[in-house]
Amino acid sequence: MPSLILLALVGLAAQLVDGSLGMAYGVTSSTLLLAIGTNPAAASATVHLAEIGTTLASGISHWRFKNVDWKVVLKIGVPGAVGAFLGATVLSNLSTEAATPVMSLILLGLGVYLLVRFTLFGLRTDRQHLPLRKRFLAPLGVFAGFVDATGGGGWGPVGTPALLASGRLEPRKVIGSIDTSEFLVSLAASLGFILAIGSQGIDFAWVLALLIGGVIAAPFAAWLVRHVPPRVLGSAVGGVIVLTNVRTLIRSDWIGLKNTPAEGLILAVIAVIWVGAIVWSVRAYRADQAAARAEAVPAVDDEQKTAAPAV
Asked: Which one-letter DSSP state was computed for residue 124?
């Protein structure tokens, strides 16, 4: 029973982060399952089965808060389902550990871009009127879905920064659309795992525990993402991506600093920089709001003077 409660709490925390930042449910949950000895295919299958319910709840919540662009959901979600099914089949037959550092390096680059872009320059709005093309979303969906199934998580870490970096969709709708489309990805990945390995190694009590925690958190996360300023949200997302992928890289065979003092020091420095970036973004957002209010006051005064009758 204590382990089930822990899993439920992990599911709740992971969904709260995932629903508000557009990533982390699969990565967080899979990491815990792997840490207690679950084999990779069974761990990914367990997480994706739970995500069928959590992503459905998250999608409904984001829809109610008007955080979803349904055209984007379909254009990226259907190809993502294809990639997830293929990824589940591949993971059931071989290990993809060698590709992990390469993937982390790519994601790290995107994370650094987002962190710098949103922290120093704020939200790019000059491209938001432009549509997200299918020729961009379809390959991205296949790639992100494949990574998600083979890595036990990755739909958000790949999809969210790519859409944010495009500048064509406001952050809350990026997160809402990615979270909603993940339902299709989770469904396809689960089907792929069940066809490949059956129910071998899957503990359905664990699935239920993760599901319950995630469903409870979904509405709160959807509300939160609507009220966090886009500039702050972008800095927060960028920091999560940088921190998690640096951790993956320094623990890989490329660097080999796992469980060393150097690992802790590097991650601590990045965490401090991340917190500083969020504080900077909050202050910049408040300054922009104050400047906008100051500009609005003279405009109102001018209108009142114009409307006042001559004496």
From this structure: -
Q: Distance between CA atoms of 253 and 131, rounded to whole angstroms?
A: 41
**C-beta separation of 242 from 111 below 8 A:** yes
Q: Which tokens belong to 45?
A: 């299958």
Residue among 177, 61, 72, 158 at smallest CA distance from 109: 158
- Is 131 among the domain residues? yes
3-state secondary structure 36-64: CCCCHHHHHHHHHHHHHHHHHHHHHHHHH
Q: pTM of the entire structure?
A: 0.71
The answer to whether the beta carbons of residues 102 and 249 sit under 8 Å apart is no
Is the distance from CB of 91 to CB of 150 less than 8 angstroms? yes
Chain mean position to CA 64: 19
CB 236 within 8 A of CB 32: no
Cα radius of gyration rounded to whole Å, the chain: 21
Q: Record the tokens describing residue 244, joined without a space.
A: 């998690």
Nearest Cα to Cα of residue 278 among 115, 80, 145: 115
Q: Using CA atoms, how far apart are residues 285 and 84, in angstroms rounded to an integer?
A: 38
Q: In whole angstroms, give the CA distance from residue 194 to residue 109.
A: 34
Provide CB contacts within 8 A for 193, sequence distance 6+: 41, 44, 45, 48, 88, 91, 92, 149
Instruction: Give the number of other Cβ atoms within 10 Å of residue 1's Cβ.
Output: 6
User: How many structural domains comprise the chain?
Assistant: 1
236 inside domain: no
Per the CB < 8 A criterion, the answer to whether 85 and 246 are in contact is no
Domain residue limits at 162: 2-100+126-228
Q: Tens of pLDDT along 155-210?
A: 887 888 888 878 788 888 888 899 899 899 989 988 988 888 777 667 788 788 88
**Tally of CB atoms within 10 A around 173:** 18
